[in-house]
Amino acid sequence: MTDAKVLVVSKKISSIHELLPALQWAATTQSELLIIADDFDNEVVATLAINYISGVFKVMAVRAPGFGDRRASLLTDICIVTGATLIDEAKGLYLRQFSPEWLGGSDRVVVTKDDTTLIAGKQTEERKAIIEERIKVLLSQENEAKGEFDKKQIREQRAKLQGGIVTIRVGGHNEMEIQNRKRLVDDAVQTIKAALTDGIVAGGGTELLRARNSLLASKKHMNNTFLEQGISIVFDACRIPCEQIIKNSGFEAYEILHKIDKKGSGFDVTTGQVVDMMQQGLVSPAASEKQALICACSAAKVFIMTNAAIAPSDKMQDFE
């Protein structure tokens, strides 16, 4: 849908008669209309689908995202971005009293089986100010939230308001090259989404290298030999990502790791210099670094609990 109007309703639409004023307006003005509501009765969906296919009017119905209080918050975000008025009977607004002034707008709407994307287009300065104010409210809610799940949900909500929409066109000389580039672009997009949601840290394995120093403080206060051995293993493992990246780039890892530890910076493999990674824009999503460590620990647990392992014959003497 292009140049679509947006109608946002905070209730389930149980009868097509509730929508008649809005549908008549859409048919008369030949406008494309997106209706977002808590839910739709099957009869309503069937009627809208038949009329859409037959060309009577171009109206699409989408179930509102989320549940409970989160749904109400997301509907507020949609209204702020599109300029729509939330039709809420608790506030004295009813569908049967439909007014075109309640409608918001979106330059483009993309509806798939799993999700809906609203592209609001260029915003006025007034609208930008309203969105910025909403982002501040969400940031305050995130800081006050107690559970990590709630914090993550609010971060994702804030990221959607802050983010924009871009079309990436990928080409190549043959199908294999195009598919490979598409995968690289998809990886980059997912990385950016993760960064928007959970923030960024210094890249190149630098953050794990720096974080492992906190393990030394914990080790000093332990009297358990097994825990000390576990800490030593994790301490050494956190060095490997940075070390391997340096080796893969053809540099001597030992001296560079010593410089990084000393300066608290990172290594830029493109220039061969120790630099401030954050200042140079060499960053990674915090979620990726965290998940990498979690997956490594999981793999190590499986190996420890395994009764047998396969290793090269020249290494077998180490296990005897």
Automatic annotation (TrEMBL):
Highest taxon above the source species: Eukaryota
Keyword Membrane belongs to the record: no
Keyword Chaperone listed: yes
GO molecular function: ATP binding; ATP-dependent protein folding chaperone
One annotated GO biological process: protein refolding
Keywords annotated in UniProt: Chaperone
InterPro entries on file: Cpn60/GroEL, Cpn60/GroEL/TCP-1, GroEL-like_apical_dom_sf, GROEL-like_equatorial_sf
Family: Belongs to the chaperonin (HSP60) family.
PANTHER family named in the record: 60 KDA HEAT SHOCK PROTEIN, MITOCHONDRIAL (PTHR45633)
Protein name listed in UniProt: 60 kDa chaperonin 3
Organism the protein comes from: Magallana gigas
